[in-house]
Design brief:
Order of helices and strands: HHHH
Strand content: under 5%
Shape: elongated
Helix content: over 70%
Radius of gyration: 15 Å
């Protein structure tokens, strides 16, 4: 599990980079509200994380024979992670008046742990033998 965690960390770092760039581009260049920009960036990050997770991170996949279902469950965990992110962003940006990008990075740490554990338990453990 240690090597999976490290590979997931690398994949998540790349997904976070894309997420953060899209978030910052949305609020700074396009003038999109931070809430919408965060959601768009997060969705891009989830897609990258999924593709790289099934290819390079997890060897055991409960739903290997049902990739669409697997993607939907992966996305559902991502949606829950987006909820965690939005709450932390709201606290950081609205309540504490922190810089949006700083708040996003803070949110990423908690969301990373949540997503890894939830995805490992629901999708990528070897309990079913697929």
């Amino acid at each position: 599990m240690t090597s999976e965690f490290f590979r997931y960390f690398l994949v998540s770092a790349l997904a976070l980079l894309v997420d953060l760039l899209a978030f910052s581009f949305g609020i700074r260049i396009l003038g999109v509200p931070w809430q919408l920009s965060a959601a768009c960036g997060f969705i891009l990050g989830v897609l990258i994380a999924y593709l790289l997770s099934v290819r390079f991170v997890f060897s055991s996949r409960k739903l290997r024979k049902a990739p669409l279902k697997e993607l939907l469950v992966f996305a559902a965990v991502g949606l829950a992670g987006l909820g965690v992110t939005q709450i932390i962003l709201w606290i950081g940006i609205e309540l504490l008046q922190f810089n949006p990008e700083f708040s996003k990075i803070c949110a990423a740490g908690l969301t990373f742990l949540f997503n890894f554990l939830a995805r490992k338990l629901t999708l990528f453990s070897s309990s079913t033998g697929h």
